[in-house]
## 1
Amino acid sequence: ALKNLSSYNADSVPSAEGLRFGIVVSEWNTEITEALYTGAKETLLKFGASEKDIIRRNVPGSFELTLGAQLLAERKEFDAIICIGVVIQGETKHFDFICEAVGQGITNLNIKYNLPVIFGVLTPNTMQQALDRAGGVHGNKGDEAAITAIKMAALKNELEG
Ligand code: RBF
């Protein structure tokens, strides 16, 4: 029950040296999104990215992550973009609408720009589940988003030459 779900094999992660990352952070539930952001940024730095190559922008909520990421993608300055948000299951259907929209929106951006746009969005049932995955007992999903960004950026560079 206390398994860290975010553990990874560091040997399988390519170097992030010289890679440029955009990070879009939702301002809903900032306690969680800030912890995810910190995890993501520290992981990028750990694998060799430079502070100057990590650009952060905020958006009001997870629904806005798609446009935030598109605006960054349009700059054509990034090897990958990470979207960070938390949508907590409530009593209304908003949860479904937001999750569906941002999931599809981010998928579309990957294809439209041929660019890794990473889905770093938690969709827990409760606040405690979110805390457990944002630097709590289950690790930090921000770390995982960063690892995915590095791996996909490396794959793109390898295949595109
Ligand atoms: N944004 C989130 O990032 N996480 C949420 O849990 C969340 N819940 C919302 C619940 C309701 C009822 C509404 C109206 C908005 C919610 N939003 C949430 C904000 C949403 O992502 C977006 O910023 C707004 O709907 C404005 O487009």
Note: The pocket of riboflavin is lined by residues 26, 28, 60-64, 85-88, 92, 94, 98 (CB under 6 Å).
## 2
Amino acid sequence: MIYLDSAATAPPRREVLEAMWPLLTGGFGNPSSRHSVGEAAARALESAREAAASVLGCRPAEIIFTSGGTEADNLAVKGLALAGLDRLSGAAGNGRAPHVVSTAVEHPAVLESLEYLRRRHGFTVTLLPVDAAGRVDPAEAAAALTPATVLCSVMYANNEVGTVQPIREIAAHCRAAAVPFHTDAVQAGGWLDLDVTGLGVDALSLSGHKLGAPKGTGLLYLRGATALEPLLHGGGQERGRRSGTENVAAAVGMATALVLAAAEREGGAGRAAALRDRLIDAVLHRVRGARLTGHRTERLPGHASFCFPGTSGEAVLLELERAGVLCSSGSACAAGSDEPSAVLTAMGLDRETAQTAVRFTFTAALGEREIDQAAEAVAGAVAAVGRLGGSHAAGVAPVTLGA
Ligand code: PLP
């Protein structure tokens, strides 16, 4: 079996599980308890915070551990936007509706948070368009900022097509306009520079299970004294920004995976980019009509995504699984939905073509032989689906890509 679905979830790392185990057994204490077992748990939690902070180049107090990327995105988007209402109240607001800038290609964790703000709190939302490669123009982001803008959120790299956004430039525009800038770095976490000062971001979301930690682990970086409205109220853990008894093992798993991923990044990103290019070249060469989606070079190293016009993404996926290759289809953004991917349609693809999308994502541990086998399997799968009559020929259920 060749696993090419690391963007959905990456294989767990043994070192991470070993680091977590003591906290789930003898070291089970509550970090708030004032006895030795509790204090040991508190120390483990703070060490995890320091380790994560060392990768991000920030202070430990700027790390908020969460239950994953979805929670980190919700906390950033809702928490920063709602806190921004205070700045708009009074003369400065001038009676304007609060405003948020984001993009049409964000993950649903961001888009649905924005929809909630619009529906329940009267925010106006500008979703920046993207070009055919899925990139946002920083000048358009700058032009979208208004005196009522309380937040700008642009993902670091896209989950469906791997395109990397020019977030440094966008963050600089936001800083000049005194607008807090958040980036969803869930897919970028294992591959790209995470130094928050160099990036110029005020908030950054990460998810552990994309890095080799278990699902349900994540963090939000929040710069210094940036105002944040908490979503979870209670005992005031995480400096009042995220109440609830801390999941110490999850925090340790998240931090351990982050440190390991950062250590591997230098060599690993180059290796994975070479594998990616090998796969892209082989598929484009062997499969007539295949179309790469996303940017050719400004894309995540371990990410290759295509449309195969005249087929169905789900049918190709099923054929590939028969051939021992596991990947994602890009045609449905939610299980049970027939809607084509909003990311692909935002990039200008027609609905029919968008329904033929397939995504291959992998770690740097993969070998060239597996890439070549995968390319061979793709050629065979597309040909088989084409012979069966293309679109929806196999009559299979839509598969989730949103993960
Ligand atoms: N943001 C992006 C870009 C993602 O790809 C994902 C998950 O696939 C998330 C957020 C949500 O992360 P989690 O699965 O940890 O909730």
Note: Residues 14-261 form a domain with the Aspartate Aminotransferase; domain 2 fold (CATH 3.40.640.10).
